[in-house]
Amino acid sequence: MESSSELIPFPLLTTPIESNYRACTIPYRFPSDNPRKPTPTELAWIDVFLNSVPSFRKRAESDTTVPDAHTRAEKFAQRYTEILEDFKKDPESHGGPPDGILLCRLREQVLRELGFRDIFKKVKDEENAKAISLFGDVVLLNDAIEDDGKRVENLVRGVFAGNIFDLGSAQLAEIFARDGMSFLASCQNIVPRPWVIDDLDTFKLRWSKKSWKKAVIFVDNSGADIILGILPFARELLRCGTQVVLAANDLPSINDVTYPELIEIIAKLKDENGQIMGVDASNLLIANSGNDLPVIDLSRVSQELAYLASDADLVVVEGMGRGIETNLYAQFKCDSLKIGMVKHLEVAQFLGGRLYDCVFKFNEVSS
């Protein structure tokens, strides 16, 4: 069901929405920049979005739910490319100046206007089925690690490995189309620590106190990301007595998991006693975030999520779009974790790290 109610600010943000909160992490321009002339950062990011047009067109062409998909996909590529080229001439065209949120929103808008609702549906369904078949083995491997700290680190590596399945990155979309993705191989190939932002040791220490009563996790992609990365992590929190709220997109965007898809996935992983691999899942809640993009502006979430999150003492924002390109510097009234893999060279350069580096930014709020 799509969320139709008015969107409101996420209640755990500490910065007043009207003054200090900025969703986008990377400043594309500064007040001193000429409003009529694109900045070097704007131009670089417009090119990132231009480079992704062929893979989006390809997905749209193969959408069997849309009549005349081939012609409409061509129209999408033309229209969206024109919008991006317009920004290069005049940053204030199309509601600009552009930032990550606007560039994503315009892409979704053009797709939806042409009748494309979910061009990644087929690949999401395939990847979800594959990941569900591997879920038990991944959980057993984690459960076999007796040391708490080592188990948490293994779960975190699983989140990074799962987060590689991202079809919004032109480079990864190409690799995926050619070779597919192996979750366990990805786990072993995570770049060695220290990562570009690495607060894992502080997080493990905080985890050992087992004092979080409620955690809200903004989830990212379908397939290995949600099923083999986030859900084993969430199950471990449940096992420690934490109530977990998973917040998923209202509408489809790239290969992000949606609220209805997540409900379906959880139903498939639960046994007849309502357990997920021996852990009671009655404390696992699924919320519609109200979002329809691969990035998120926390000044606009669903009222349902705001209500469920109001008493949480841990917020996890996962994925490059939600936790790095937006909200990396967002501050919360409770403990918070931004976790994701860097899949754009421009983000790696901004952070002073490497491509496929990891971000694990943990902020502890003393009670």
From TrEMBL:
Gene3D superfamilies: AF1104-like, Uncharacterised protein PF01937, DUF89, domain 3. Its cofactor is Mn(2+); Ni(2+). Transmembrane segments: none annotated. The lineage of its organism: Eukaryota, Viridiplantae, Streptophyta, Embryophyta, Tracheophyta. One of its GO terms (cellular component) is cytosol. This is Damage-control phosphatase ARMT1-like metal-binding domain-containing protein. GO terms for biological process: coenzyme A biosynthetic process. The keyword NAD does not apply. It comes from Protea cynaroides. Keywords: Hydrolase, Manganese, Metal-binding, Nickel. Residues 51-359 form the Damage-control phosphatase ARMT1-like metal-binding domain. GO terms for molecular function: ATP binding; hydrolase activity; metal ion binding; pantothenate kinase activity. The keyword Manganese applies. InterPro entries: ARMT-1-like_metal-bd_sf, ARMT1-like_metal-bd, At2g17340, At2g17340_3_helix_bundle, Type_II_PanK.
